[in-house]
């Protein structure tokens, strides 16, 4: 006899039916907010050609060097499970010529991502992101709109103590001088750097600012500040972003140490941070990536976006005591006694479902008492018991499980569905008034 496989892989989590409503609640808000800002959904494959991430995310990043799930197919193609959502979205827009549509192109996604990291609270090997992507606008107003959209989501969810930190890391031209300054600064500490940072020093010195090694992080505190090396155009862009945010009442702090962990970022970068979830404090991060489309082989096109970690968001909501309302599990449970009544209950249940009512009947073969206990467990708002007498009269009494009030209704399927719908609406209205 084969042993049962009963444990999930390390770094993954199950979302059970009793908890799924929490995910659905926040996902619905994501979709509603995205649509309010003019965004439409994009869906891309869970795996892509490896070189997409090597070119898009950056070969010097920890994501590409250490964390990707990469494998060879039977056809010897190198394939990688997506570690983030932006590169795949950009690839799809290029491949299908979406950039020929009226600009800007606004797309959002809900995706699972995969990184081989040490699992801890707020960081898993399989995790989920909501993201928004805007292609075709170089304007600082687009940067501000993206940040405002993120802020709007947190406001809808009633999150507190979520602070916004912003920075500008400049364009390719002004970063050249900044890279020189970083190399000069860190070179004097080269023997003290971790092995990864010794390599980064030559290939991409900005990555040293994002190193998680405690000693290197301490050294980074004294490093040159990127804002001092911005060209005039990048400085003006950043100042304009700040003006838009201020005029819209968005509080922020300029943090010159924010560089983000992926190489495609340029100019504006930002993070929304919570102190309620420990070390993994960044709930949402994003910025501008004006060179990404060209890096992937397309014509140059400005772009920007953000990604929000859904697991971290839910952790933050839990830490702040924000309750997500559980949806009604059952409007009515139709109990039955005997075979004829069971068939009638089945017929009425399906008639109710066609009318948009959440209805259940017994499909396990329970006795009447056990059926009513089940109705209580699933928190049915109403119940009805069918037996031979009810079948003969073609009428039954529907009981309000909270008030005990009973209402007689015809058992003709269409009439039953219509009458119960009216009864439920009246009950919901009364409940709303009392609430």
Structure description:
This protein has 15 helices and 16 strands. The protein is α+β, with helices and mostly antiparallel strands and 435 residues long. The strands form three sheets. It has an eight-stranded mixed beta sheet. A five-stranded mixed beta sheet has the order 13-12-14-15-16, sandwiched between helices. A three-stranded antiparallel beta sheet has the order 2-4-3. Helix 12 links the parallel strand 12 and strand 13. Helix 5 runs parallel beside helix 9 and helix 12 packs across helix 15.
The portion of residues assigned to helices is 40-55%
Overall mean confidence score, pLDDT = 91
Oligomer: single chain
Strand content: 15-25%
Strand order in the sheet with the most strands: 1-5-6-11-10-9-7-8
Structural class category = alpha+beta
- Globally, the shape reads elongated
- Specify Rg, calculated over alpha carbons: 28 Å
Tell me the number of strands: 16
Low-confidence stretches: none
Measure the end-to-end span: 57 Å
Largest sheet geometry: 8 strands, mixed
What is the topology?
Blueprint lengths: L19 H17 L3 E2 L5 E3 H9 L3 H6 L2 E3 L5 E4 L4 H10 L9 E10 L11 E10 L4 H17 L5 E7 L3 H16 L7 H9 L10 H7 L11 H16 L5 E2 L11 E9 L7 E7 L3 H4 L7 E7 H10 L12 E5 L2 H16 L4 E3 L6 H10 L4 E5 L1 H6 L1 E6 L5 E5 L2 H22 L1
Parallel strand pairs: 1-5, 7-8, 12-13, 12-14
Antiparallel strand pairs: 2-4, 3-4, 5-6, 6-11, 7-9, 9-10, 10-11, 14-15, 15-16
Helix pairs in contact: 1-5, 5-9, 12-15
């Amino acid at each position: 006899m084969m042993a049962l496989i009963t444990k999930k892989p390390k770094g993954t989590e199950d979302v059970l039916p009793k908890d799924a409503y929490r995910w659905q609640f926040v996902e619905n808000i994501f979709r509603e907010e995205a649509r309010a800002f003019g965004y439409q959904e994009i869906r891309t494959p869970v795996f892509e050609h490896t070189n997409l991430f090597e070119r898009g995310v950056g070969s010097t990043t920890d994501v590409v060097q250490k964390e990707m799930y990469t494998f060879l197919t039977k056809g010897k193609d190198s394939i990688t499970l997506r570690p983030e959502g932006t590169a795949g979205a950009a690839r799809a827009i290029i491949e299908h010529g979406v950039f020929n549509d009226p600009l800007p192109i606004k797309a959002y996604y809900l995706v699972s991502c995969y990184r081989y990291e040490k699992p801890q609270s707020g960081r898993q090997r399989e995790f989920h992101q909501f993201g928004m992507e805007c292609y075709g606008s170089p304007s600082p107003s687009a940067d501000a709109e993206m940040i405002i959209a993120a802020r709007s989501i947190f406001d809808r969810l009633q999150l507190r103590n979520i602070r916004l930190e912003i920075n500008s890391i400049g364009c390719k031209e002004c970063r050249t001088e900044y890279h020189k300054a970083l190399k000069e600064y860190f070179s004097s500490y080269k023997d003290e750097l971790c092995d990864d940072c010794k390599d980064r020093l030559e290939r991409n010195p900005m990555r040293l600012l994002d190193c998680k090694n405690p000693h290197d992080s301490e050294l980074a505190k004294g490093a040159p500040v990127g804002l001092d090396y911005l060209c005039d155009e990048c400085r003006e862009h950043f100042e304009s972003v700040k003006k838009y945010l201020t005029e819209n009442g968005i509080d922020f702090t300029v943090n010159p140490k924010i560089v983000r962990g992926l190489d495609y970022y340029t100019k504006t970068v930002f993070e929304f941070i919570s102190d309620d979830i420990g070390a993994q404090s960044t709930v949402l991060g994003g910025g501008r990536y004006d060179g990404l489309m060209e890096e992937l082989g397309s014509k140059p096109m400005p772009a920007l976006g953000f990604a929000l970690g859904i697991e971290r968001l839910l952790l933050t909501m839990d830490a702040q005591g924000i309750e997500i309302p559980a949806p009604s599990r059952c409007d009515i449970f139709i109990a039955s006694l005997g075979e004829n009544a069971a068939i009638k209950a089945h017929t009425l249940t399906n008639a109710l479902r066609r009318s948009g009512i959440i209805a259940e009947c017994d499909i396990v073969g329970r006795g009447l008492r056990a059926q009513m206990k089940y109705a209580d467990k699933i928190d049915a708002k109403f119940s009805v018991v069918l037996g031979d007498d009810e079948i003969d009269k073609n009428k039954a009494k529907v009981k309000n499980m909270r008030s005990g009030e009973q209402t007689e209704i015809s058992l003709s399927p269409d009439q039953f569905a219509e009458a119960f719908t009216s009864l439920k609406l009246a009950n919901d209205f009364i409940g709303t008034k009392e609430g």
